[in-house]
Specification:
The longest helix has 20 residues. Helix 1 runs parallel beside helix 11, helix 3 runs parallel beside helix 5 and helix 6 packs parallel to helix 7. This protein folds into 2 domains: 160 residues, TIM Barrel, CATH 3.20.20; 113 residues, no CATH class. Strand 6, helix 7 and strand 7 form a beta-alpha-beta unit. The protein has an 8-stranded parallel beta barrel, surrounded by 9 helices. The protein is of the alpha/beta class and 329 residues long. The chain contains 11 helices and 9 strands.
């Protein structure tokens, strides 16, 4: 059986604010733990009114405190936005409070626009040092050596497991070289998925953290009791991606019955390409479509995100996915 995990973008829905989004995420994390999901990640995004997880390590602390067994982590921290020492201290603190339950996924993109990047006091060139920053972070999590001048406290000796995230071959090559698990962002950038997985597996070098390659694609899954209801609920996701195409990001919108009147033919084509790995339907439909994806990718694990406007419908979607997990490969 393939392991299934949750990526929660902590969506702020139309008519509500960040507080409601964060409280719903805490409720969803508890629900996912009861359903048996492997891990629950939130992502760093800045200057986006529709995503409430900008202070990612703070959110992770609340989610970990609200749960007891499931792994909680970042999917991911955008490392170019931070000094490695600060991230080592933050996640070392989380590991000290919730031992054996914290994951740290690392991304090379800023997770925001260039204007906001300057507001973060970071250079657009910061991503160039990403491989060196990952190595520095690993060293800070390792046991401190004699006479070590810079130490992460908490953090040193915690060996918080690192993941490399990406949507191109760069991340696949780096994860393989360092012997780290790899998660591909196919939930919004699907084009290079199969090539990246092949490169990662072919070039993987075992490490102290990981003996064999471990690949986890991210995908959108909207499940409901019928295909028709799932398609209706998925219109919120489709509207979000149309907003990305139009350069108008906002809060997650309620579902609509007629997407054809909402998007242009060009927008429809663009969104469908970006959502190539969006799986929408009833459990019977998902057994077929999602099962084919698992077999095709040979994924060790899949990370599911479900931008659904109605919180109870979102919880139901994860229930249905959990119910077919044993049949997905």
């Amino acid at each position: 059986m393939v392991a299934i995990s949750v990526l929660d973008l902590v969506p702020v829905v139309e008519g509500e604010g960040p507080r409601e989004a964060l409280l719903k995420s805490i409720d969803l994390a508890r629900h996912a733990e009861r359903l048996g999901f492997t891990r629950y990640w939130v992502a760093e995004h800045h200057n986006m009114v529709g995503i409430a997880s900008a202070a990612t390590s703070v959110v992770i602390g609340q989610l970990a405190a609200a749960t007891s067994t499931m792994r909680i982590g970042a999917g991911g921290i955008m490392l170019p936005n931070h000094a490695p020492l600060v991230i080592a201290e933050q996640f070392g603190t989380l590991e000290a409070l919730f031992p054996g339950r914290i994951d740290l996924g690392l991304g090379r993109a800023p997770g925001t626009d260039q204007l906001t990047l300057r507001a973060l006091r970071r250079s657009p060139m910061s991503s160039d040092s990403f491989p060196q920053d990952v190595l520095e972070l690993q060293a800070l999590f390792a046991p401190a050596g004699p006479n070590q001048a810079i130490r992460a406290v908490p953090g040193e000796g915690s060996n918080v497991p690192l993941w490399i995230l990406g949507s191109s071959l760069f991340g696949a090559q780096l994860a393989a070289e360092l012997g780290l698990p790899y998660s591909f962002a196919s939930h919004f950038a699907p084009d290079a998925l199969m090539q990246a997985l092949a490169v990662y597996r072919e070039r993987f070098k075992p490490s102290e953290q990981l003996a064999a390659a471990h690949a986890m694609p991210g995908i959108n899954v909207v499940a409901a009791d019928t295909d028709e209801e799932a398609q209706y609920l998925a219109s919120s996701l489709q509207q979000r991606f149309v907003g990305m195409v139009r350069g108008a990001r906002g809060k997650l919108q309620p579902p609509i019955a007629d997407m054809e009147s909402y998007w242009t033919p060009a927008e429809k084509g663009h969104v469908r390409q970006m959502l190539r790995y969006a799986f929408i339907g009833s459990p019977e439909t998902l057994k077929r479509t999602l099962g084919h994806f698992v077999r095709e990718t040979q994924a060790n694990e899949i990370m599911v995100t479900a931008p659904i406007y109605d919180h109870e419908k979102r919880k139901r979607s994860f229930e249905l996915v959990a119910g077919i997990a044993a049949e997905l490969g």
